[in-house]
Structures are given as C-alpha cells and as structure tokens.
Records
---
Amino acid sequence: MDDERTEELGSLTAIFPELIIDPTNPFTATLELPIAPTTPLLARFIPASTSETESAHVEKDVRLTQLPPLTLHLNLPESYPNDAPPKVELKAQYDWLPKEKLAELEAEVASLWEEYGHCQILFSYIDYVQQAAERGFDFHQSAAGCLVLQADQESKLVAFAAQKEQENFNKGTYDCGICLEPKKGSACHRMKRCGHVFCKSCLKDFYNNAITEGNVTGVECLDPDCGALDANGRRMRVKKHRLVHPRELLAMGIEEPMVRRYVEMKRKKKLETDKMTVYCPRTWCNGPAKSKKYPPIPADLTTYVDNEISDDSDDANDIPAAPATDPAIMKVIDDVDRLAVCEKCELAFCRVCYNGWHGHYVHCRPRNPGELTAEEKASYDYIAKHTTPCSYCSAPSSKTHGCNHMTCKRCLTHFCYLCGAYLDGQNPYVHFNTAGTTCYQRLWDFEEGDEGQAPRDERGLVAPQAPEFADEDEDDAAEAAAARAQAEENNRIIFPAAPAAAPRNDNPIMVAMAQFDWLAVLNEEEEEPPRNARERVARRHRDRLARNPPGRGAAQAVRNHERGRGGGRRGGQAGGGNRQELEQRQQAELQRFLAMAARDEEEGWDSDELGNDDEDFVIPRR
C-alpha cells in the first residue's frame, strides 16, 4: 500500500505546479504563495527613530495592491496524518509580515488537523492562507487599522508592487485610446495618475511633437474626459490639466534629451509666472536666483523632484501673485532672507534693492521707486527726512526726546543722532566734548525730538546749526531784546553773505588759509566798565554772541516758541558758527581765484574779497 504522504504531495503538485519537492527528502516541499489583496492593503510607514537628527523620514500611508510572496515550507512526519499534524514554516520576502502574524498562521495548521479529524489537511491549510492574503490578513481590524512597517521598507515594497502590476499589465490586451487598435500590454502604457491606456507609439509621436514645438501644456493625458470628471463620475466646471511627470515620459520610451528639454521649458515657465522670482541685476546675465521651490535640474532625470502641477492651473502651495513692492511680500523678504544668489554667474545680491549683497543689517529700499504707490513713497520719504541711519547697519532711527547719543536696536551700535558718527560704547560722550567738531556741546540739541524741524541733507543726517540764543534776565526783557537786535545787526555787518563760488576746473588746487583768532582778540581788548544797566546787558549779550551766535530761520522760531522763555543754556561750537562761515567764505574766494588764474583772468579778482576789511588782521596792542 502506497504511503499517504506521497499520495497527498502528488495531488498538491498537480494543483500547484510550482510546488518544489526536496530531492533529498521526498516528504519535504516548498511552495511560494503570491499575495494580492482584493482591496488594496493600507500600509503605514513610520520612521525608525523619533529624533529628527537620526531619521529624515516622515510617517506616510501607502495602499499596496501587490505584496512580496510568502514561502511555505512543508515537512510531513512519519506519523502524519494519523497521529501528528504536518509541520509548516512561513517566511515573508523583505520581512514585511510581522512575526506575530506569521506565528498565528503557522499555529492554524494544528487547529485544522484537529478539526478535520486527523486526516490530510495540506490543501485546506494552503487555501486558508490564500484567503487570509486576499483579506489583507485582516490588518484593517487591528488596533492601528493598517499594516505598520518601518520607513526603510517603503521603497522595496512600492517597487515590488509596481513591478508586479507592470508584469500583469503586459500579459493583457488593450484598445489604444488614440488609434483604437487592440494591442498587447507590452506595447501599451497606462497613465499612472488616471489609468487611461494608450499605445506607446501614439504617445511618443504626440509628446515629441509637443515638446519640439514648445507646447508644454500639451504634455498631458490624451483622453478628452481626463480631468473633467470628479471621483463620482460627474463632469466638473473647470477641467484640471495635469502634466506628465518626466519619469513617466522616460518609462514610455521617450529619449532623455527630449525629456530634459521638456523639464527645462516647464521650469522656465514656472519661474516666469511666479511673482517672487528675482533675476540677476547684471545685464549680460539676467539669470534667476537660486530657489528651493524650483531646484536645479539634476543630471539624472529619474531623481528630478516635480510637483506635477500644470502651468495653467492654480497651485495651492504657490504664493499669490502680488507686485514686488507689496508691503506683505517686502516684510517676508526682509524678515526671512534678502540674500539672493544667481544660479548662472553666482552673484550674491539683495532681493529688495538689487545691489550687491550688503548684509542683513542694512536697511534698503526698492530699486525702482516708480513701482511704489503714493503711500509707500510717502513712507520712504518720511523715513529719509525724519530719521538718522545707524552708522553700521543703516537702520533708520527717530528720536522723540532725550540726548543725541543713540543706540541702534538692531545691531546695538552707538552713534550720534546729529551727524551719524560712530561712538565708542565705553565713552560715547567724548564726541560731544571735542572742540572743533560740528557736534561740540550739542548733546542736548533737539531734546524734545526733531518733529521735522531739524533740516537734513541727502544722507538723512541733521545739518549743523548754530545753538539757539536764550534769554537770561527776565527782569530786563526790553534791554535783552534790544541787545539781541543789536547783536543780529552786528552779525550781519561783520559777516555779510558770501558770494557764489566760481566753478572749479577739473584739477582744483586746494589751499588752506591761516585764520586769525579775532574773537580771542576782542575778548582780550581792554574796555571801560559799563556805565549803566543797559550797557551791561548789551555787553553781556555781545559776549554771548561772540561765543555762541544765535540760530536763524523758521525752524529756530518754532523751537523758541515751543520751549518758551528762560530755556536752558546750549553750548556753542568752538570759535562760534560765524567763524566757520568766514572760513568757508574765504576758502570759496580762494578757490575762485585759483580757477580764474587757471584761465588767465586773475587780473579781474580783488584781494579784498578774502575778508571784510584789513582791520580783521590787525595785531592788537598789548
């Protein structure tokens, strides 16, 4: 009588031709069981570590229609089937099936042997495993609701599923959606996004012509209803145009140079339509700046990352179109990163002012003021007129009250609010105590804030001004007013308006003239004692004028009105503002003489124009 084990293995070989019997042991066999769930199995790939520095993967859910097969090892003991069940061992390729599930499947063979009354149960057990595979091994009923795997297994399983799907597709026969002829699956291509089938010959002809003519938007699915129907089969108002990915073009047989041309044109079109794209300021380059949103095209197109969104459709991730000077966009640029690097010539420049890179601390404005709105232009003009730039980072600073020693909030640099000079943080006030400088004894000028009263030059710095003339004796208001009037008249007579400087030649000769300290002489001259209170007040104000001449103009009148009578004393510049005016006028006259001498016209110049009169240079008697 034949052995029951041999009879059962023979029957299994007829049903499963792929069953392999071990030649060294006729009662040991191996069978490979394919796994193709009826409903795509949901697999969740999680990172191997929760630390961001140790793992760059993120949690991702993927639905798999094909999974690596299970290998079933059968061993029939001598007491099988009457006294002992068969021994089975299951192994999953790539170890995608958890060990707990494998142990559960292996334990089921003993339950079936007991249930069937100690008889042959190999076919029933194989059928049980196959039905469990079609149900996805019931992972949808687990606590996680899906198959949970490590992230490093994703690429293997996804690649295996794609390969098996392609093998199954090549075995079938399909009607081309363009030429309408039936063809084998190996000669056809199924679009990955929508599943429409066309023969490769028709697709290559159409896409090659579209890319050659520059019709980037034409590289899409050729089915008329593709993108026009929703998930329920209802027609949508607007058809969604989705372009074909470069990897799919390579898969259907289009040559690599043609696909690279398609990628370059697609990227160029996206750069041109994106309002946030900036271009190199060099006229001979004009290349786009490097961008993470539009990375450069790699040498291997299979690794090219593309959002697969058509150029004529709205991408939710794109920044909305807005002018380059939109305050919101300008704030994003200013807060995030203003540095731009040209991807062609590697020039580093600023995205806002398009000048060479000046660092993050420098405050700049758009290169083309014509693009500004009236409100934006008024804001920039106000900042330029009523603020002083930091001496290090050029950040605008405004003073509402206090002294002229400023500290930049951006870079913590100490600087002078009047002239913008850099100040030593250890001793910042030496700048205001150094005789001969424009800010000498002007620490408290515009103490209440300039409020637009301080005139500024084109750099935004406060123009040097003479200190104000303050009243001292409120009891002798009339005498003080008369003395001020007389001082103004004396100042006008002694220092008349300087004539306009003549135009300089190309190479002017700069000559500095020695000035005589006539104010010191006036202070040293012996005078008779005052005869009355009026003369005493007049002399006191005359001395003040020599040391600290009064300011002039409407701005000075507004400051006097705001501060009222009896204001605090202000220190003047060394030697008085009038001395500087005299020196500037004499230098201008000397330069005019040199210019006339270069043209042989010095005979028409009068030497008296260097000073008011010869009395200014008389040596006093001791």
---
Amino acid sequence: MATEHYIKGYPRPQFVRDDWQSLNGEWDFRFDDANVGERERWNEQLNGDLKIQVPFTYETEASGIGETTFHPYVWYERELQLPADLNGKRVMLNFQAVDYTAKVWVNGCYAGGHQGGYAAFSLDITDYVNSAPGAANRLTVKAEDSQSCTQPRGKQRWVDENFECFYVQTTGIWQSVWVEYVSPSYLKAVKITPDLDNRSVRFEYQTQLADDNLRLETKISTGQKTFKQVSLHVDRAWLQLDVELTHEANGPWKLQSWSPASPVLYEVEFTLYKDNQIIDQVYSYFGLRKISIEQGKVLLNNTPVYQRLILDQGYWPESHLTPPSEEALVADIDAILAMGYNGVRKHMKIEDARFLYWCDVKGLLVWSEMAATFEFNDEAVENFTNEWTEIVRQQYNHPSIITWVPFNESWGIPQVYTNKLQQKFTEGIYHITKAIDPNRPVIVNDGWEHTISDIITLHDYEEHGDALLERYADSGSILGRAASFNNWKYAMAQGYEYRGQPVMVSEFGGIAFNTGEGWGYGEQVSSTEAFIERFRSIAQAIKDTPYICGYCYTQITDVQQEVNGLLTADRSPKIPLEVIRKVNLSLTE
C-alpha cells in the first residue's frame, strides 16, 4: 500500500510537491566527439540530428538509438512550456542523475551544472526563462563522460568491450528530469531522524528564505489520523525541531516500529506559511526504526536480525542501469521477497529513488553501496568523497537503508592491505559518513581487507558446502589474519585487528547453468536438481557457522555476459521462486 501522497512516476517520492511537470520523453540529441559544441554555440541552437527518449541513455535500445560505442560528449535539447501564470513562483529544474558532468543552458544562457553520475541535483532557472504566456523556452544539456578510472563508475566498463564483470557504459541523462514551481521562500530539504528508544523524531530543516513572517508547520499522521502537529517561526536557513511521539492532546497513541514484517510508515506534511498564507507544501514520511550492533550481532529495533540478502546490480536488457518503468522496480522487489530474502545489497549502483521508496513501503532491507573508482590518486579521492557525501545526505531518510557500503573488494584502493595512504582514505570516508549519519553501520571495504568497519564481510564463491564449513570453522584464524580465506585474501588489512564486529558472508553462490554462453562462479550446473543441491549446501554451511550472522547471495538476475542470476536478464525464473524461498526460510526460521 502506497503512502497517502504518493504520485505514480514522481521521481522523488520522499519529498513530494503537487506542482510539477515531467520532462521525460523525446529530446533532440547530438554526439560531439570532437568537443566543438560549446565553441560553436550549440547551446544557442543544437540542430540535433537524432531523437532520444529521456531518461534512457543512447547506449540502450529503450533510448531509440542503441549504440554502445563510447562517446565522451553528448547534447540534449527540448522545449519547455511553462504554466500560463507562474504567480511569482520560481522554476526549479531537477535531474535525478546525469553521468558524469552536466552543463545546462536555458534559452542559450548558462544556468549551472553538476559533477557526479549518481547524485541528484537541482537548478533554479527562473532568471533564464521567458515566463510570458505561451512563450517557448529552450532547455539544452551537455553531458561529459570519460573512460577515466578516477571518476566513480561502478560496473561501467572503461574500455571499448565488456570484460569480466564490467558492462556497457552509461553516458548522459539516465534518470528522470522534471520541473517544479516554488515560492521565493521554500523548503529545500528536511533531514528526518527517528529515535525509537526515546519515542521521538528530529527534523532538521533547510530553507530558502526571501520573506519575513514565515511559519513552518509539521504534521505527523497515519492515514487520516493526525498524531502530532507542531509549528515554529522560520528566521534562518537551518532549523531543528525534536518532536516527542508519546502523546497528543486527545490522549496517548500506540507507536509502531518499521520492520520487514511490519513496514509502518508515518506520513509527514510540511507547510510553510507567510502571513498565514500557504506558500509551500511538501509531503514526506518516515519509519520509526533503529539499527544497532551489540555482541557481534546486528539488531533491528533492539532485536537480532539474520540478514538474508541478495545482490542486485539493477540492470535491464533494454535500458541497462535505467529502470524501464516503475512497475519494473516493484516487480524486482516482489520477486526478492517471494524468494524469501529480507534484504538487498544494491551493488555498485545508486538506485532510482522510487526503488528505495518501494523498499520502504514493502519492508525490504537495503545496503546502499557506492559506485567505485578504479584508481587511487588525489583526483579520485576528491571525486569519490564529494559524490559519496551527496548521496548519503540524499538517501538518509529512507528507513529501508540499514547499511552504508562506500568500498567493495579494494576497488579504487588496490593496495589497502598495506598502503597507509589508502587505509587513511577509508578511515576518512568512514568518519565523514558517520558525521552525516551516526545511526547506521558502515562497511568500509566489503569483502576483505577491512580497516575500520562496523561489520566484517567476506566474499567467498566456494562451490562445496563441506569445504565452506571447514574453512570457517576457526573464527580466530580467519578474523585474526592467521590464514587467508578463499585461498588468497585476508579479512583485515595490516595494522587493523578484529574487534568483535558482526561477521557476514556478503557474496557467495553465483551459480550458473551450463548454456554455452556467459559465465558464473565455479563449475556451471546442467540441471535444476544440481543447482538446488549446490545452493542448499553452501547456504546451509554459512548458516551452520555460528559466528556468521547473515549472507548475501549473488545474484538476482543475469547481467549481460554474467549469467549467474536466479532470474534471467528479462526476469524469467530459472528456479521456481518458492523453491528458493523454502531453502532460505528453512535456514533461518
């Protein structure tokens, strides 16, 4: 069941305004391999020789182009028709994601830009638009990409052909574009921090102020019942308010926490008044839930939770990293839940905000993982840090996110096992993440060679359950760096010791059928029976290792040349979902 103010297709469902206009659809498009567009002033008249369906990138069939050759510079243009009467409102242009650098012009005038392929950004374009009734406005976007490994790129290849587990690049606009209309004074963002133990919630408001006599009202409700309504005077850009959730004027009410079993969400309505007239109204929500770590266990709402996760790279055959529809996102979540998983590790991708919304609504736990760089130098450090901090702030309010994962398998920090500079970088990212969000665990280097990390995670694609069980029988050997696991990696980096953190196997399995195409981990299987036997054997070995408190299976779907999904790339089950579900639940219930 959706939240009360959910709007189908609205790109940012945790911060909803009713007054908006989608700019998805057909745009003019042009390649600029020689990078002459700015010099020749394409921002004044693009003369695009192609059409593209935004938000799908030119590399995808869904875009209408379907060319996978890398092009470093691409241009977009479309007409923007504004409402007949803006009534003094500001025009905000929003991009959910453009890979990698975006430059934006309105009616030929430069309006701003952004660097970072996975973070959302907004521009106030009011000063550049023609707001006369019926006037046409021209919106032009240049996207600059590269094959550099100093930019966060995740699973996007940096050579001309796919290799190993790296796939066709994503260039340009790959998530939704839209405009919304706001008063000169408006609410820019709200950071929501529920406190389960103290039965309260903290709101940190960021406002754009252009008026006096402003008042902000915050109303908390479930459905049609209002539980709390508080008001405060707005006299500065940043405001903070702590709200107790224990009583209302008409008597006490029962609090309900958010969990996979009961994903209760509280609706929030923020209303900004000027002289008692409404000038801005935003709808959001929160879940009252707590993530903590005690005695080697991860606790959800003060109760240990065994995490049954599945790895999800978020690719589709026709649209690559861009979901083909909101229904496709929901279908993936439903399939994950149907297979008995209670969570998902979003691998090397910052997913569409609507995916996280539906995880919030349906109760699916999420590990949010940053797309990796693949070099270590000052430029990579700066690029990574800037974008990661943007993402943590933007995703902070989602109750489904229970873990941050900035690094994976030493990608971008290849000598972290011994290199002090790379180790200090991981420490810095850990602490800056904690400075923004002290309430979620951070896994600094998922898979191996951990420095400081709230959870110790291991990747192991052993095919035989008995070998897996034997390998992890001696926790002191594995976690104390006396022995490598998976025959070549150590759990901890040199100079760092295991300090009793929870331990999880966060990649295993990767079983592929023998079809003669693509690859999986280990020997490919030739029958459903062989698949199920191997799947059950390795999963049981992990569950039978007492100090391991969760797992993440690789993976939900096939992705291009990697054919080790439980579903095919077009989401057809290889194994009946209920069979996978039975194995998962028999291990942990």
